[in-house]
Amino acid sequence: MTLTPLFFYLFAFVTVASGFMVVTARNPVHAVLWLILAFFNAAGLFVLLGAEFLAMILVVVYVGAVAVLFLFVVMMLDVDFAELRAGFIRNAPLGAIVGIILLIELIMVLGFRLAGPLSTAISLPIPAAGSSVTNTEAIGRILYTKYVLLFQGAGLILLVAMIGAIVLTLRHKEGVKRQSIAAQSARTPAAAMHTVKVASGTSTVPER
Predict the structure, then answer these.
(1) Which of 40, 50, 64, 82 has the fewest other C-beta atoms within 10 Å?
(2) Which residues of 3-42 are buried (b: 16+ CB within 10 A; e: fewer)?
(3) What span, in angstroms and rounded, lies between the C-alpha atoms of 100 and 105?
(4) CA 33 to CA 113: how far, in whole Å?
(5) Beta-carbon count within 10 A of 56 CB
(6) pLDDT tens per residue across all 208 residues of the chain
(7) What is the dihedral of CA 139, 63, 60, 135, to 10 degrees?
């Protein structure tokens, strides 16, 4: 008896349980730690599918960079959790609508899958046994040829998300000095410094 089904159910159960804990954990740090566990188990599922390259990319990129970045942001930023909870309650109806739409789509996909296999179903480009094409080369061929437009579209979506995150988190607080390139370039020696004549035996406090 092979152990592959046993490991599959183990990884799948831990992944689903970790994902559930991510959205239900009250502490954001704990939620990020559960997310890291979910990524590790998803990588195990990729290994069982024979996609070792995707598994390593998932560990290196998501666990080693994205999840750790989330952890640092959550731990180092001064997050107002009361404000976050208030925003969650205020946007709960919209979130419920989006969740219902996603649930309907998942039910439709499952129904179509049970009704019969689709001829246009997307499958992992796993090379056949004995093939000289490696897993990485097969993924690169299908990603940069057949799905190149979708790949570029995903990059644009990530760019827009990054710009949106910068705009949402950029807050102009009072009393915080900000850099002005134009003002710095226009400064003259006379405006940048001035001479103070200090009498012998006295001191002066520099102006800020």
Answers:
(1) 82
(2) eeeeeeeebeebbeebbebbeeeeebeebbbbbbbbbbbb
(3) 9
(4) 33
(5) 14
(6) 577 788 888 889 999 999 898 888 877 778 888 888 898 899 888 888 877 888 888 888 888 877 777 777 776 665 666 666 666 677 778 778 888 888 887 788 777 666 655 444 445 555 555 567 777 787 888 888 888 899 899 899 989 988 887 777 666 666 666 777 888 888 888 777 777 777 777 766 665 5
(7) -20
Amino acid at 118: L
Length of the chain counted residue by residue: 208
Tell which residue, 7, 1, 2, has the closest CA to residue 47: 7
Structure token digits, residue 68: 């750790």
The residue whose two tokens read 């970790």 is 18
